[in-house]
Amino acid sequence: MPPHLQILTTPGWADYALLDTGGAKKLERFGALTLVRPEPQAIWQSSGDAAAWTQADAFFDAKPGDAKAGEDDDNWGRWRFAKPLAPEWPVGYRGIKIACRFTAFRHVGLFPEQAPHWDWAAARASSFGVERPKLLNLFAYTGAASLMAAAAGYEVTHVDASKKAIAWAKENQAASGLGQAPIRWICDDATKFVAREVRRANRYHGILLDPPKFGRGPANETWRIEDGLMPMLADCAALLAPGPSFLMLTAYAIRLSALSLCEAARGALGGRAGAFEAGELAVEQKSGGRFLSTSLFVRWTGPGAAP
User: Fold this and answer.
1) Which residues neighbour 272 within 8 Å (Cβ) at sequence distance 6 or greater?
2) Per residue in 142-191, pLDDT tens?
């Protein structure tokens, strides 16, 4: 019996809103600033106020020639500004503070569509029968998921190959008032790290896996999701605690379906008992009744891991 496919939506919150979409672009508000960024999924025409697009604070112009070999063309380009702006500004979510920044690619350090995953993992913190369940966050970027988990009661191992991302995440930790939270910051190639953890026989109650389509490790190791995902899933399955546990996988910009991704996870878990969910993450547009699909996801929950 195939899993029931779901759409998990982010309706926005006080510091974030998807204002409009269309013409392969999206208009968003992050904190005090409105941004226009490329969005290949928005193949329709905008239904909102055309003036709102021109009055945005910053615009990202994709420049395919700036992309490095193996990376997505629409991620790279240049920011244009309607007026002088500070390079960093705060965005909050449930007490967590994230510093957004204008980077050399279209992202700003926060993926709002992941909010349902943050809440889902946080809600399970008390279901493992231990004071501090262990959570492993792989390809963890600027730390929103790690900080939400730590605030909920997890002992977090945060792994990312970028020193800049780790430093950024630590700044977000301080801004969120979580300086004493039990977070272990690891700058390492995720593939190598999980392989070592398997050899060390370490176990985690929860694993968050958010791999990019393409990436490079700290020693210039190359990651391609098509080649690396299945070995990574196998190692993650070996790292799951034998009792209540969960695995959450998110995948962006790949030519797979949610069903295919779910079957990959089922294979890696080797028939282990538990429940699978699969589908898409989407952000609800503030007006117009539209939903913007952003990524695929799979969640596996072992017996006893639900609140």
Assistant:
1) 237, 240, 302
2) 999 999 999 999 999 999 999 999 999 999 999 999 999 999 999 999 99
